[in-house]
Each structure stands twice: as structure tokens, then as C-alpha cells.
Design a protein that fits this description.
The complex is a heterodimer.
Chain A lengths: L3 H18 L4 H5 L8 E8 L3 H14 L3 E8 L1 H9 L6 E3 L3 H9 L3 E11 L1 E6 L19 E4 L4 H13 L7 E3 L2 H9 L5 E5 H6 L4 E4 L9 E8 L5 H12 L1 H9 L6
Parallel strand pairs in A: 1-2, 1-3, 6-7, 6-8
Antiparallel strand pairs in A: 3-10, 4-10, 5-8, 5-9
Chain B lengths: L2 H7 L9 H23 L3 H8 L2 H34 L5 H13 L2 H12 L6 H6 L8 H27 L2 H8 L4 H12 L1 H17 L2 H6 L10 H11 L1 H43 L3
Helix pairs in contact in B: 3-14, 4-8, 4-11, 4-13, 5-8, 6-8, 8-11, 9-10, 11-14, 13-14
Chain lengths: 261, 287
């Protein structure tokens, strides 16, 4: 190279730029720090927990002054990938046991995961229920446009279980990769019905109505949470897990439509 | 080292690029190439063939190729007149029209999907009318093609409009003074002249259609063989089988590389041809 100095300067510039992108306050989480110093707790939670965990985080912060919770919501599988690639999570709350097991297999779970909630499926229909869906059997009717989750994701696995238990074979017009996508197709009126979690149907507001069905009890989804190995803030992580399992945490989850573990 | 040969080969070219530019350029190239290398390093070659030839993978690949071909044809049919009007026409609101047509280039595809949903969906602007006519677009392969055309059209229009402006209207003007009708001028002069631009625009549209994800997911849904294109299949496989997702990603990269290589070679060749055929005309100064 003709100008080694310039090349080095460029390289240094690049490294500095990347360093500047690193999350601020990272140092703070690792220091024990004096009382009153701000400490950050990063919670990775399944997308379906968004409403409940946002409220929980607020209550936890109020009860523990000086602790600030950063929430990150995504599909459980996405979160596992992110954590195993080094994303700085202190607590992981999964929408199913399978994804928690995936993280545990990589040695990234600190202690035993604890079940903190359950969720069942409900039929979501557009406001006014234009197709007149009243039961799970109605979904198999000719001409009814049903949208479900693909069997690769937790809500889809639950759908498959119910289909097997009841012997009713659905012919969905679409198999989406997340509950949110199913809900989107229902709330926009494109689909006549969709299978989503009770909690999702509840949080969707006035554009979506919920049709409960007894067969849903055959596929109950259990949510586990655990502290992540190497968590920068282990005491706070344990405290948060205990808070979710405690009376106050359970009340918030129940209000959002989750079942007791 | 044989500097004289070097000098002889490139006699009068000024290569005044400062050395540090190369360093930054290398960083830029690495930013693009390194992630691809990282992905290739993750491929499980022992399982590669079974993974990419599984029933769902082949269905997704076939659907992607079919829908992309269809949307490329639609892009040509709709995009050529648009580019002509933008490059040669002069009317009120031309600038506004150009900005609007190019909008999908900068719009997040999800936004495009939502817009399409509220236009062609059951409850959408045209949805009721279409339903009365017995046409249902949502959850059909038509929806995929529509979403792909929406995001790919600007690529064709931009390439072709650029080619039209570079070519200029003088040959068309000459043809017209010699008595050719506007349609004949278009067919015999304009289109042959901009064929390289049209070809590269079509290839770019095809590539963009192949990679379409967000608008399809929002607007068309995801069902094997009907609406689940290769990017959607990759997104879904990633939930359970990361190796399958990586293997399929590699297939998509290979197809994309082949398409881009084809575009460069194709347009290069046609470009040379055009230059040689038009050179004498330029020398003859028909004006």
C-alpha cells in the first residue's frame, strides 16, 4: 500500500465508529456501584408478552428505584438466536418450553427455568363476525377463509395439536410465521377467522372479536422464564424473575388474559 | 516488475486515486462480502442437497421463479410506457408523477404491503368491486405478483428513463421527418436504441421481485405452493431449522449473483452492438 499511514487512520476511524455504536451504559450494568446509581436490566421476552411485561417492568422499576429495565420483544426463536450470538440479555421469557430448552442446551440458562404463565388459543374474527363463526368446527366449513400460524412456530404447533385431537382438518388460506401476522389478516377483514392466543385477541381492541372454544384446552402453552448465564446483573435478574412469579406479577398477567402456570 | 509494459498498456489514463481511497473502498467491499462469507461458512454441506431439494423448498423456489417472471413481464408492459412518458413527454405534474412512481424504491416494503391490502383487499378501495366481479386477490398467487410488481416497477422505470435521456430524441426526430409514424418510430428507432437499458432494468426488476418479502408477507399471506415464496420459506424455516434457512439463503444468493452477472454481461454486449451501429449515423450528421 502506498499510504500505510492513511490506511491505518482509516482502520482506526472504523474501529472507533463501531465502538461508538456499542450500547452505552454497558459498563454500568457490570459495576456493583454505589446505591442510587442507575442500573440496567435487559429483559428479552416473547412478542405475546409485550403488553403484560411492559406493565410489569414499570411496576418493578417503581418498586426498585435505580433499576432501569430495557425490554426487547420478538419471536422466541429470534430471541434465542440473538442471545446465543451474544446479545446482552439478563432475563429470557419464552413463549414455549422448546425455545427455552434450545437456550439451555447451549449452556446459556442460569438455574432452572420457571413456568410463569399459560396461554390457550382462541378464534379471532373481524368485528361483527361476518362469517358467523361459532365453534371450532365452523372453521372447517367450505368457503370460510381461515388463517393460522405455521406449525414451525408455537401458536401453529398448538393449532396442529387441536386439529389432531378433534379430527377436524382445517384448510387455511395462509400459514403465517407469527401471531401478529394472523391477527393483521383478521383485523383488516381479509380473513374470516384466525387462530391466535387469547391474550393476542384481547389486546387487538375493537377490530377483533373473540370466539372461545372448549377444544382449546387440549393445547395449553406454558411460558417459562430464566436468568441468562453471564447476566451482567444477576441479583436484579433473580429479583425480576421472583417478581413475575409473585402475587403482583401474576395479577398483571391474569389481567392480560394469561392463565396461571 | 516491468513498469514499461504497464505504461505501454495504459498510456494516457490518469489514475489519480489517493491511496487511502483504496483502504476505505476495501472496507466498503468487505462490509458486503464478509457477511456472505460468514453465511457460506455456516452451510452444512452434508445436508445441503436434501435441505434444498425438500418438497417445501422446491415448491418455494418454483413459486418464486414463476411469480418473479410474471411480475417482470408486468413491469415491462407497464414500465416501458411510464418511462417513455416521463422521459419524452411534457405535461403538468410530470415531476410529481416521477416522484410517486419512484416511491416504492424508498418505501419500506411492509408499508407497500399495507397500502396494497387497503387497495386490493376485501375491505379495500377496489376490493368490493373486484369481489362483485368474482375476483379475489388476497391469499392468491396474483397477490404475490402484484406485491412484487409494486416494489420492482421503479427499477425498470429508472433504468429505462436514464437510457432514453442518454440516447436523446434526435434519431427519433429524424425518423419522424422521413415520414415514420410515432408508433413506427417507437418500434424501429426508440426501443432498439434503449434495448440495453430495458434489458438491465428488466433483470433488476426480476432480482427485486425474487427478493420481495415484506409486501408479500403483509398482503399475500404464506401458504406452500400458493403464496410462500423463497424468502418467506427462509423466514419460516429459521424458526425451527437454522441449517435449512442458511442452505436456502445460499440458493437465493446464487440465483441473485447469476441474475446480476447476466445483467452486466448482457447489457455490456448489447451496448457495444448499439455503439457500432449508431456510430456511422453520428458521423454522417443527418441534421
Amino acid at each position: 500500500m502506498k499510504h500505510p499511514l492513511a490506511a491505518w487512520a482509516a482502520a482506526v476511524l472504523m474501529v472507533l465508529t463501531l465502538a461508538a455504536c456499542a450500547p452505552a451504559g454497558q459498563g454500568g450494568t457490570n459495576d456493583d456501584g454505589a446505591a442510587g446509581q442507575r442500573r440496567t436490566l435487559t429483559v428479552f421476552a416473547a412478542a405475546s408478552l409485550k403488553g403484560a411485561f411492559t406493565e410489569l417492568a414499570g411496576k418493578f422499576e417503581a418498586a426498585n428505584p435505580g433499576t432501569q429495565i430495557t425490554l426487547s420483544f420478538a419471536g422466541s426463536a429470534d430471541l434465542v438466536t440473538q442471545i446465543s450470538q451474544g446479545a446482552p440479555a439478563d432475563v429470557f421469557a419464552s413463549a414455549d418450553a422448546r425455545n427455552m430448552a434450545k437456550l439451555a442446551d447451549q449452556g446459556l440458562v442460569d438455574g432452572e427455568p420457571r413456568d410463569f404463565a399459560t396461554n390457550t388459543l382462541a378464534i379471532a374474527v373481524p368485528a361483527g363476525n361476518p362469517a358467523g363463526i361459532k365453534s371450532f368446527g365452523d372453521l372447517a366449513r367450505q368457503g370460510v377463509k381461515v388463517v393460522v400460524c405455521a406449525s414451525q412456530v408455537p401458536c401453529g404447533a398448538a393449532t396442529t395439536t387441536i386439529e389432531q385431537e378433534t379430527g377436524a382438518a382445517l384448510k387455511p388460506v395462509s400459514e403465517e410465521s407469527s401471531v401478529t401476522d394472523v391477527l393483521g389478516k383478521v383485523s383488516s377483514g381479509e380473513a374470516d377467522a384466525g387462530l391466535v392466543y387469547v391474550t393476542d385477541a384481547r389486546s387487538a381492541g375493537a377490530t377483533v372479536e373473540q370466539v372461545p372454544f372448549p377444544e382449546a384446552a387440549k393445547a395449553v402453552n406454558t411460558y417459562p422464564l430464566a436468568a441468562v448465564k453471564g447476566a451482567g446483573n444477576k441479583p436484579a435478574a433473580d429479583a425480576f424473575v421472583a417478581f413475575v412469579l409473585g402475587a403482583e406479577g401474576q395479577a398483571v398477567l391474569a389481567a392480560a388474559g394469561f392463565g396461571a402456570p | 516488475m516491468t513498469p514499461p509494459t504497464f505504461k505501454a498498456r495504459r498510456p494516457a489514463t490518469y489514475t489519480g486515486i489517493p491511496g487511502w481511497i483504496y483502504a476505505v473502498a476495501a472496507a466498503g467491499a468487505l462490509l458486503v462480502v464478509l457477511p456472505l462469507v460468514g453465511m457460506v461458512a455456516r452451510v452444512n454441506w452434508a445436508r445441503f442437497i436434501p435441505l434444498v431439494t425438500s418438497e417445501s423448498s422446491l415448491a418455494a423456489l418454483g413459486l418464486s421463479l414463476r411469480t418473479s417472471a410474471a411480475s417482470t413481464v408486468l413491469c415491462i408492459v407497464l414500465g416501458v410506457p411510464l418511462a417513455l412518458v416521463l422521459a419524452r413527454g411534457s405535461f403538468r405534474g410530470q415531476r410529481v408523477l416521477r416522484s410517486l412512481v419512484l416511491l416504492p424504491l424508498v418505501l419500506p416494503p411492509v408499508v407497500g404491503g399495507i397500502a396494497l391490502l387497503y387497495t386490493f383487499g376485501r375491505q379495500g378501495l377496489l376490493g368490493r368491486t373486484l369481489e362483485v366481479a368474482g375476483i379475489q386477490i388476497a391469499f392468491s398467487t396474483t397477490a404475490v405478483v402484484l406485491a412484487q410488481t409494486f416494489v420492482a416497477l421503479p427499477f425498470l422505470v429508472v433504468s429505462l428513463e436514464g437510457a432514453l435521456r442518454t440516447a436523446g430524441p434526435k434519431y427519433e426526430a429524424v425518423a419522424a421527418t422521413l415520414g415514420a409514424s410515432p408508433s413506427t418510430v417507437l418500434r424501429r428507432v426508440t426501443l432498439p436504441l434503449v434495448l440495453p437499458g430495458l434489458a438491465s432494468g428488466a433483470v433488476l426488476s426480476f432480482a427485486r421481485s425474487l427478493g420481495e418479502f415484506g409486501a408479500t408477507l403483509t398482503f399475500a399471506g404464506s401458504l406452500q405452493g400458493v403464496t410462500r415464496t423463497l424468502p418467506l420459506e427462509i423466514y419460516l424455516q429459521r424458526e425451527t431449522d437454522a441449517e435449512a434457512a442458511v442452505a436456502l439463503s445460499l440458493v437465493l444468493v446464487a440465483v441473485a449473483v447469476a441474475v446480476v452477472a447476466l445483467a452486466y454481461r448482457g447489457s455490456g454486449m448489447v451496448g457495444r452492438e448499439i455503439t457500432t451501429t449508431t456510430a456511422p449515423a453520428r458521423g454522417g450528421d443527418v441534421r
